């Protein structure tokens, strides 16, 4: 296949070009335990980036379309930019093993809305073992929060140790649950080496800034 030599080397996994030969949207997956703040991250990213980028969202829920409905109710994007996949099975399967429903949802959005800059794919809430197939997303954000205690980063798992960005959310709750953020930071770094970690509170105005900054940097690389 002809490929423009100015483009960066393709990532292992998905092709960076769409079927029309143009560069497709950057795809970022968000995984993490139930209730850690994945939808809150998606909503905040949409509000932060929607005026500067063309973006769309695919949500995954096991039995409902609750997360898509939340995003629609809160009007974070026009309705045609939000698609729900009801996995009906372990969320893991739909983002890692049989990615066909998600891939189709992403490709349909790109096809219907024209060129997009960014597609966010939220996994159904799962445990610490969830990871996305590289055939579905280019980068993975793993969202955990402080409310399960400061031991979570120490427990490891592929999301904590190998995701492209680890988000430790709900720092506003740390004093209430006795979570020591310094311990979480130390353990996360031990698990991840040089991979980035951000602490945030999405319940706080501007709390998404460090995640949005990371996304902007990935987009700059993608379109360089
Ligand atoms: N205090 C506090 N609450 C938060 C924060 N971020 C999210 N929440 C709340 O945590 C709850 C769960 O957030 P969601 O964004 O739905 O979590 P999720 O990871 O998408 O959940 P599932 O998709 O069900 O796995 C909601 O009630 C949010 O309002 C935060 O930074 N601080
Ligand atoms: Mg959610």
UniProtKB/TrEMBL annotation:
Keyword set includes rRNA-binding = no
Q: Which InterPro entries match?
A: CobW/HypB/UreG_nucleotide-bd (IPR003495), P-loop_NTPase (IPR027417), UreG (IPR004400)
UniProt keywords (A-Z) are:
Chaperone, Cytoplasm, GTP-binding, Nickel insertion, Nucleotide-binding
Cite the CobW/HypB/UreG nucleotide-binding domain residue spans from the record.
28-198
Q: Which CDD domains match?
A: UreG
| Binding residues annotated for GTP, in chain numbering | 32-39
Region Disordered, as annotated, extends over 1-22
SUPFAM superfamilies from the xrefs? P-loop containing nucleoside triphosphate hydrolases
Keyword Ribosomal protein attributed: no
Q: Domain of life, per the record?
A: Bacteria
The subcellular location is: Cytoplasm
According to its UniProt entry, the function of this protein is described as: Facilitates the functional incorporation of the urease nickel metallocenter. This process requires GTP hydrolysis, probably effectuated by UreG.
Member of which family?
Belongs to the SIMIBI class G3E GTPase family. UreG subfamily.
Task: Give the record's subunit note.
Answer: Homodimer. UreD, UreF and UreG form a complex that acts as a GTP-hydrolysis-dependent molecular chaperone, activating the urease apoprotein by helping to assemble the nickel containing metallocenter of UreC. The UreE protein probably delivers the nickel.
| Identification of the protein by name | Urease accessory protein UreG
């Amino acid at each position: 296949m002809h490929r423009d030599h100015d483009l960066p080397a393709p990532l292992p996994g998905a092709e960076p070009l769409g079927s029309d030969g143009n560069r497709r949207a950057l795809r970022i997956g968000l995984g993490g335990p139930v209730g850690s703040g994945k939808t809150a991250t998606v909503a905040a990213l949409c509000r932060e980036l929607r005026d500067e980028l063309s973006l769309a969202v695919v949500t995954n829920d096991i039995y409902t379309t609750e997360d898509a409905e939340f995003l629609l109710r809160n009007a974070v994007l026009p309705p045609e930019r939000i698609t729900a996949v009801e996995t009906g099975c372990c969320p893991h399967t739909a983002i890692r093993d049989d990615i066909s429903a998600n891939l189709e949802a992403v490709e349909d959005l790109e096809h219907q809305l024209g060129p997009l800059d960014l597609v966010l794919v939220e996994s159904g809430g799962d445990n610490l073992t969830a990871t996305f197939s590289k055939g579905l997303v280019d980068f993975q954000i793993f969202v955990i929060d402080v409310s399960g205690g400061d031991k979570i980063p120490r427990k490891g798992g592929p999301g904590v140790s190998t995701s492209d960005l680890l988000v430790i959310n709900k720092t506003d709750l740390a004093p209430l649950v006795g979570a020591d953020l310094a311990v979480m930071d130390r353990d996360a770094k031990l698990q991840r080496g040089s991979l980035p970690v951000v602490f945030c509170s999405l319940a706080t105005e501007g709390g998404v800034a460090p995640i949005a900054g990371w996304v902007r940097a990935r987009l700059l690389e993608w379109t360089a």
